[in-house]
């Protein structure tokens, strides 16, 4: 009954927005995507005249789109590579990296595993098959079941870079799970399991281990404070990249993300804000 | 008279159009699949792709060997058939030969409902219930194994096997049964020695179609098989199937890159497998329907 007027109203609204408003396009990393999406929603409520469009595709896709001028902000879970810089300069684009959040990766085991802490080298030995039984690390006589994300995941890439120094995880019989939630689920149900998940996915059914760069320590549990202070070793910065120092609506959006309110959204989503937030 | 002739012609054109649209769709999908896959083989040898045992698409240099995945798919499908064939044919014989008429539709309906359960539900059930149970009973380090995937796929393929086999059993003429019973054979002997052999090509078609169902299933195996491209695979180890590989990796393979092309090539291999199974299955089923 009231369908037609509603359609008309929507068309009118969208039309008006296009006529009067500005457009803002974000593209890139799927790790940053949840932040970008939530921020865009809140931002659009505040500034209804701005039409914000958010797309995934991966860091590389976002950066390429920024260089080609098809997006205003590139979301990236890594800094730009030299080859990308070269192409940007060639096209007259000056990339400006905004550090908007951090992402900490927690190393988790089954709650019954008595182990409390590991060094990066020990984690690497587990994931490359050099350690296959927990008793080698002073734990129970139990076969290690390594659990990894699939190779398309950004978390996988970072784990590979920061923990395995670029090597592929290669422990025999390793399980590959399609999502952070699936890794958490598999670890919770497998007594001999070790896995890694984004900090937002920690829950009481799995146990996070304290991690140290080397045996000298300190061993640090993953937490917001530890990532902000830089003491937790498995963390990475997340960026939004703009062309030059931004103006107008792009600048308003970046400032919104960096504000206490924007950073609170970051924290809500399980990522680590760039500074401690009061309250 | 004239008017009806016109209406007939219009309907004919419409149905003809629908039929050719689906054919065109199939043709375009095939074309696209192979167009995206073929450039891979200018950089990777065909033999190395099919028979390579190492799949590391994001390493430097990458390695694209799909043998562990082909073997994984084959192993899981074979295991699924071990479950689906005896149970499916048993169900078909039970519905066709044992149950009184009134109950047949009830059981047929429940088998159809089995076919209608979404695969993600099977996957979740496997992950949360069957997997941990298998892990405990067999004392495995993890329940996410080829065996678990095979069990679930077997249950999922069962309705396909059962319904096609049931059609074949129903198509066996009553004169055969009556003759057998008149010669003094028991109902069991009649079912086992007369009806089943007479329905065997139909049952075979059901098995082939069930196999197509099992090999193409994605969500369930993705959730329960552990997705580890181990070589050689076994029932008690995790496996990675071809479908799971495409599903896991397609999202972030850069469009047009080697990895992307390799995933399309995996899809192509899978497509050829399933096409072959369906063609043979349909051919056999067709022969049954014509009563040959």
Structure notes:
The complex is a heterodimer of chains A (279) and B (292). Chain A folds into 2 domains: 12-102 and 237-268, Periplasmic binding protein-like II (D-Maltodextrin-Binding Protein, domain 2); 104-229, 3-Layer(aba) Sandwich (D-Maltodextrin-Binding Protein, domain 2). Helices cover 37% and strands 23% of the residues of chain A. Chain A has 10 helices and 11 strands. Chain A has helices at residues 3-20, 33-46, 59-68, 82-90, 120-127, 154-162, 180-188, 224-229, 248-258, 260-268; strands at 22-28, 50-57, 73-76, 95-109, 117-119, 145-149, 175-177, 193-198, 207-208, 210-212, 235-243. The longest helix of chain A has 18 residues, at 3-20. Chain A is elongated. Mean pLDDT of chain A is 86; it is low at 14-19. Chain B is mostly helical and 292 residues long. Chain B has a two-stranded antiparallel ribbon. The radius of gyration of chain B is 23 Å and the shape is globular.
